[in-house]
Amino acid sequence: xxxxxxxxxxxxxxxxxxxxxxxxxxxxxxxxxxxxxxxxxxxxxxxxxxxxxxxxxxxxxxxxxxxxxxxxxxxxxxxxxxxxxxxxxxxxxxxxxxxxx
Length: 101
Known about the structure:
It contains 4 helices and 3 strands. By secondary structure, the chain is α+β, with helices and mostly antiparallel strands. The chain has one domain. Helices cover 31% and strands 18% of the residues. The mean pLDDT is 85. It has a 3-stranded antiparallel β-sheet with strand order 1-3-2. The two termini are 23 Å apart.
């Protein structure tokens, strides 16, 4: 990821977002250098069904609840992120760079 932040890419890359990846590492203590602290949210209330349908395409990644990569856990996370910002379902991102002109 850090290569993307270096010149000459930094001349034309206006925004860099980090996205949340549900994983078994969610159960470990957070490290400040790797902590995901969302500061940008997208309302996905109208798309949660499509998100779950896309998830189902990744057969080798699917797990049973309560694993973070289960269908139910993905819905729970989307609801949690929605509650944080006032939507029914949301996707959370962390803005790493936003270049204003």
